[in-house]
Amino acid sequence: MKRLFISTVLASLLASGAAFATTNPSSSEVNKQTVAQAKSDAKSHQVELLKESVEALLLTQKTLVDLAKNQKDVAIKDLEKAIGKLEVVLASKDVPKLLPVQNTVVAYEYVGDIKTLLKAINDVKLLIAANKLQDARVLLNTLRSELVISTVSIPLATYPDALKLAAKYLHDGKTTEAIKVLDAALNTLVETQIVIPLPILKAEGLIKAASIIAKTDKEQALKHLDQAKKELVIAQTLGYVSTSSTTYKMLKEAIESVEKEIKGKNKAAKLFEELLNKIKEFKEKAIKHTDTQKEAESNTTKK
Questions:
Q1: Is 35:107 a contact under the CB 8 Å cutoff?
Q2: What are residue 292's DSSP bridge partners?
Q3: How far is CA 247 from the centre of its chain?
Q4: Residue 5 pLDDT more than 50?
């Protein structure tokens, strides 16, 4: 399911660029439009929440509330309803291993320049050296620039069986055991996170914008490319790494080659194509995705 989600989102989010609102935007406008488009695409391609899985999770939580109120009969009915919801899903064709119950998209954008960033990093180091770890953590949390797409899911390999075991315990009068099983089940929810570095997205957007106007507005195209280099420096300084064989140094050199061509004969179309292919691959391999256990929250349908 995680791989399906990644391919669905990234196919649109990363293969396409921002549709620029103006025909010749400034570099800052390109950045704003790129981030806005990325957020919009991510939200429009979120994994569809399965109604049955959300209801099963809510009923599981309600079962614990029922038991806290000593309403055993109500708890059994709610638990059986939850099991029934999951049985519907299990009976369907091509059942995924993870059933999504919550989606969120959050952007953390660093908007300072490299000078400000280097100062902040030095300040963090000084705070750590002075054992002011909490102050350092607050500042360190600002040193990120990324789009975070999170999906919380029910693992079908374990969750339905846990509910059935809890139901058996309740029918046998073993309420304490049932509560333990339900608590454990709710703590097996899996959160999948996809983290996309925004400076690399911005650099790609700027390069695309430059390629469009390279022949009609050399000056603005060169400004876009210069800003793209700055965005890549910020990405590298923030610690975003890629498993691509392409490096930040290679991207910088490729941009400089395009800049040189624009200033000269301006036969940069082929160089732009090669550069865009390089940064696309670099970006895709810089995306980080992780699975972690996450305790269920009361608001499971938050978007």
A1: yes
A2: 191
A3: 23
A4: no
Strands (DSSP E) found in 39-158: 98-108, 146-155
On whether the CB atoms of residues 145 and 108 are closer than 8 A, the answer is yes
Summarize pLDDT for 247-266 with one digit per residue, the tens: 999 999 999 999 999 888 76
Q: Would you say 185 and 154 are in contact if contact means Cβ atoms under 8 Å apart?
A: no
User: d(Cα 223, Cα 200) in Å, to the nearest integer?
Assistant: 17
The encoded tokens of residue 177 equal 């055991």
Helix crossing, 114-129 with 218-237: angle to 10°?
10
pLDDT per residue as tens digits for the range 129-139: 999 999 999 99
- Written as six digits, the tokens of 121 are 């990093």
CA atoms within 13 A of residue 237's CA, in its CB half-sphere: 21
Residues 6 or more apart in contact with residue 282 via CB below 8 angstroms? 200, 242, 244, 246, 251
User: CA–CA separation, 131 vs 275, rounded Å?
Assistant: 44
Query: Nearest CA to 203 among 131, 259, 282, 261?
Result: 282
Which residue bears the tokens 């390999």?
157
Predicted TM-score (pTM) of the model is 0.78
Whether the CB-CB separation of 107 and 149 falls below 8 Å is answered with no
Best CA proximity match to 76, nearest among 87, 63, 59: 63
Mean pLDDT for the stretch of residues 163-180: 95
**pLDDT band of 8, cuts 50, 70, 90:** very low
